[in-house]
Amino acid sequence: MLRYLAKRLIGLIPVFFGITLISFFVIHLAPGKPTDIATSMNPKVSYEARERLEKLYGLDKPIPVQYFNWLKRVAVLDFGRSYIDDRPVSEKIAERIPITLLINILAMILILAIGIPMGVISAAKRGTLLDRSTTVFAFIGFSIPEFWLALLLMSLFSITLGWLPISGIKSFDFARLGIGAKILDIARHLILPVCISAFGSLAGISRYMRTAMVGVIHQDYIRTARAKGLRESQVIYKHALKNALLPVITILGLSVPGLIGGSVIFESIFAIPGMGRLFYESVMARDYPTIMGILSIGALLTLLGNLLADIAYSYADPRIRVTEEE
C-alpha cells in the first residue's frame, strides 16, 4: 500500500505542473492586462509609464519566460506579490482558505450524511412513493442553478422571515459576544452557504447510491444472505452497502472540484471572505499572481481528493488492494 501511495504521489507531480501550465497560458489569453486598471482610466499616464509598469511586473517578457519565472518562485513556495495591494499572495490565500475549506468540509459531511442513506432507502423501497419522491428531488437538484436557489433562500429566510443573516460570516457586534454566542453566530451565517453548496451534489450522490444499490441487491450473495434468515437491515447495511459504495467513492472524489468551483458563486453572492470570492476579485482585476496561486491550491486539493478516493476505494474492495500490492 505504501508503495502504491508513493507511486501515486509521484504521478501527481507532472499532472499538477500540467494544470498550472495550461492555466497560466489561458489567463494570459483573456483580454486586458493588470496595468489597464491603473493606466487606462488615467489620461495623464503616458505610454512610457505604461511600459515601465509592465516591465516592473515582468509582463514585457514572453509568456513561456514568465511561466518559468513563476515556476522558480513556486518551487520555494513563493506565489509572488499581488498586483492590487502588493501583499504576498500566500498571505492573502492563508487568510481566506480556512473559511472556504470549512464550508466545503461541512458540505461534504452533509452530502454523505443525507445523500447515502437517501439512496440506500430509495433502492430498498424501489417503486414506492418514497422512491419517487427522492427521484423528483434529484431532478430538482440537478435542474436548479445554485445562484438562483441562493437568491430565493436569501429572500425567504433572511428578508421575509428574518431567521438567518443575509450575508457575511460574522455579525457587526461579533467582538462583543461570548464564546458560545460567537459559535452560534458563525453557524447561523454558514447555514445557507453550506446548504447551497451541498444541494446539487446531494441530489447526484443519492441517485448514484440508489443505482449502485439496485445493482447490488440482486446479486447472488444477497439472495444467499436473505436465505440464511438475516434481517433485511443486516442484508442491506452489512452486505450490500459496502459493495455499493465503490462507484460512489469515485464520484465523491470527482465532486471535490465542483465544490471548490462552486465557492466562487456562493461566496460572491453571500459576501463571504473566502478563497472563491478572492478568486473572483482577482480575475476581475487581472491579478495574475493571485489567480495562479488560487488555481494551484485548488488543483492540489482536487488531486489530493482524487487520491483519497482511490485509497478509500482500495480499502472498500480488498481485491483492488491485492492488485496494487502485486
Provide the succession of SSEs.
HHHHHHHHHHHHH
Count of discrete alpha- or pi-helical segments spanning 4 or more residues: 13
CATH C-level label: Mainly Alpha
Radius of gyration: 24 Å
CATH homology superfamily name = MetI-like
Write the CATH architecture name: Orthogonal Bundle
The class by helix and strand makeup works out as mainly alpha
Enumerate the spans where pLDDT stays under 50 for 5 or more consecutive residues. none
Percent helix: over 70%
Instruction: Determine the N-to-C terminus distance.
Output: 10 Å
Number of strands: 0
**In total, how many domains does the architecture comprise?**
1
Strand content: under 5%
* Large-scale geometry: globular
Main beta sheet: strand number and arrangement?
A: none
Mean pLDDT, to the nearest integer, reads 80
CATH overall fold name: MetI-like fold
Descriptive key words:
single chain; 326 residues; MetI-like fold; 13 helices; 0% strand; globular
Could you characterize what this model shows?
The chain has helices spanning 2-29, 36-39, 47-57, 63-75, 89-124, 129-143, 146-160, 179-216, 220-227, 232-269, 275-285, 288-316, 318-325. The longest helix is centred in the middle third of the chain and has 38 residues, at 179-216. The protein is mainly α. The chain has one domain (94-325): MetI-like (MetI-like fold, Orthogonal Bundle), CATH 1.10.3720.10. The model has no long low-confidence stretch (mean pLDDT 80).
